[in-house]
Amino acid sequence: MMNKVCVVGLGYIGLPTASLLATKGFEVCGVDVDAQLVGTIHRGEIPLVEPELDVLVRSAVLSGQLRVSREPAPADVFVIAVPTPIAAGEKPDISHVEAAVRAIAAHLVPGNLVILESTSPVGTTERIIAELRRLRPELGVAPHDGEACVEEPIYVAHCPERVLPGQILRELIDNDRIVGGLDPASTAKARAFYERFVAGRILSTDARTAEMCKLTENAYRDVAIAFANELSMVCDRLEIDVWELIELANHHPRVHVLQPGPGVGGHCIAVDPWFLIDSAPAETRLLRCAREVNRTKPRYVVSKVKEKARGLRHPVIACLGLAYKADVDDLRESPSCEIVRHLADEGVGEVLAVEPHIGALPAELAALGVRLVELPGALERAEIVVALVKHRAFLDLRPETFRERIVIDACGILR
Ligand code: SAJ
């Protein structure tokens, strides 16, 4: 009765999902190819900062409901939550999904449900089916071809994860979920699974629409952020305070402009639009343009700093925030890191980085002479302060603190 779950990939989505399922009474096998990661989780520790996740993982492991391994094990439900990055030329790389499918194939038995949670280009779930048919031709794999089948088939569905880093556990339970099976039987089976631990609504569709829906959500956000980022540059030119402008415009009942920032980071919003662009290159001019605006925003911030630094002899530049967004420790694809790297690499000045969520700088930044310092020390020494991430730890800063300094506020910290 779908009590045994094998979660393949123990990253930002797989680990919280596996732990949550374990604490909801499922017998969970969490799988990852990274031996070090498996060891860390086995000790009840976590490799990332996410509210309440440490407690959840520890209790899941200690209760014995979550077992971690490098190899999949037989289960009723297989959840694939592996990375789907972009490779050179902005081409989707689904090799981790393919490897996960190969890894679980030998363990499948009739009646199993395979769920792809990784954000994927349209058509990926169909490719999983084709691969399973090739690897296990003796099994019936949904959708059924209509022939009488004595045994149950393998059910396959795409149920994209949609949780926001920083609020993963709450959103795993409360968000509405989209369930797109390769046939109605697969959809129904996946629905029944999610209904056991999701409080949000479960919305049924087909696999292709589910794939496209996830891409649409992130592409929509990319376009909306690009709009805000473009406004910030127009405002610089026209000498208007963009933060005040947006606040005023958002009083209109049908306007909701997002916030400009140093660029768009993370592994999702900056990546997923490319899956759509790759599938329909001629039809995605807007998406490409939004990507361009967001991708070049860090360079724009760097050029603003350079302009200010030009008048100083030995500029000391304090950069507040390295994470890809507020209140997370995640530096992956962080526009702030990109800005700090350029400032140091181009010798614009002595660069001090303040990032309360990390204990050591990435080697690449340290090698360029960037120093990780505490906020008070940075503010004392800096002639230029570049506010990059609106961390809670910075919100108490008052404009008076900066009276003698040149301030470039890329994230609206002073508002
Ligand atoms: N950002 C802005 N201005 C804003 C909002 C965000 O510049 O007004 C920047 C952030 O600083 C960050 C980037 O955009 O650099 C992305 O941050 P985010 O909080 O918008 O999104 P992610 O990447 O952390 O998570 C997104 C979420 N998608 C949507 O909100 C549509 C999340 O729900 C997805 O599950 C996740 O991608 C994913 O895994 O795909």
Question: How does the helix and strand content classify structurally?
Answer: alpha/beta
By DSSP, the count of extended strands is 15
Helical content stands at 40-55%
Instruction: State the low-pLDDT regions, or none.
Output: none
Basic shape: globular
CATH hierarchy: architecture of the largest domain? 3-Layer(aba) Sandwich
At the fourth CATH level, what is the homologous superfamily of the largest domain? Answer: NAD(P)-binding Rossmann-like Domain
Strand portion, in percent? 5-15%
Q: Order of SSEs, N→C?
A: EHEHHEEEEHEHEHEHEHHHHEHEHEHEE
Average predicted local confidence, pLDDT: 95
Ligand catalogue: ligand SAJ
Strand order of the largest sheet: 3-2-1-4-7-8-9-10
CATH topology of the largest domain: Rossmann fold
Count of runs of 4 or more consecutive helical residues:
14
Please give the largest β-sheet: 8 strands, mixed
What's the structural domain tally?
2
**What is the C-alpha radius of gyration, as a whole number of Å?**
24 Å
What is the name of the CATH class of the largest domain? Alpha Beta
Q: Give the CA-CA distance, first to last residue.
A: 53 Å
Outline the structure in words.
The chain has helices at residues 14-23, 35-42, 53-62, 95-105, 124-135, 168-174, 184-195, 207-238, 242-249, 272-279, 285-309, 335-345, 363-367, 375-381, and strands at 4-8, 27-31, 66-69, 77-80, 86-87, 91-92, 113-116, 155-158, 177-181, 202-206, 316-320, 350-354, 371-372, 384-387, 406-409. With 415 residues, the chain is of the alpha/beta class. It has two domains: 4-200, NAD(P)-binding Rossmann-like Domain (Rossmann fold, 3-Layer(aba) Sandwich); 216-409, 3-Layer(aba) Sandwich (Rossmann fold), CATH 3.40.50.720. It has an eight-stranded mixed beta sheet with strand order 3-2-1-4-7-8-9-10, sandwiched between helices. It has a five-stranded parallel beta sheet with strand order 13-12-11-14-15, sandwiched between helices. Strands 5-6 form a two-stranded antiparallel sheet. Helix 13 (363-367) links the parallel strand 12 and strand 13 (371-372). Helix 4 (95-105) runs parallel beside helix 5 and helix 10 (272-279) crosses helix 11 (285-309). It binds ligand SAJ.
